[in-house]
Fold this protein.
Amino acid sequence: MCGIKCIKTLLFAFNFIFWLAGAAVLGIGIWYEIDPGQFNAFLGNSGYRLPSIILMATGGFVMFVGFLGCCGAIKESRCLLGLFFGCLFLIFAAEAVAGILGFLYRDRVETEVENRLKEEIKTNYGVKIDSTTNQNVDNLQIRLECCGASNYTDWDESKWKEVNKDNKVPLSCCKKDENTRTCNKVSNFDKKKIHTKGCLQSLTDFVDKHLFVLGIVAVSIAGIQLLGMIFACCLFCSIDV
């Protein structure tokens, strides 16, 4: 009897922690969606945003499952505990599949982002003075301290260059401590005054940092899920039919 009470208490405590973890996952998913949001023009539907969608959905579902587990533990219901175990297993399987797909499609995603970024820089930037593309590219280059897609020489082949022959790169490529009126001029050009790293690499590094956080969260949740399934099985087997 004492063993059942101990397992019941542990399972209830676990599910409360699990519910809090679900809320945390939901919050992290929202953060992942909002923080890189200003770069969505380049990320688009490439797949980089998929983890945030999965996390938000998983976080909400985990909160529901945690509540379900608490009810099953309190009422000692084999039906609820069985449903709880099944839900945990489904979440665990979904996380594993998402991780595998993310690894398999990573190269294709990077290629899609590269093509979109090069198109924006070489074809669309500078066509219209107040275009959204101009703002997106400038924000990207300023925040990530980068220039061009692969590097700053991408601007030599752009439509922007055709109408800005006196400028080597846009002003958003200039370093903060340089004179932004002259640092991009062809006549006074010195690449030490601008950011030379390509935005593709900078954007990839930026997203990878977010994915690293998501990876840690996913592994932590997976560990909690395994413990939950073990506790649920123990309590399920201890309850008399």
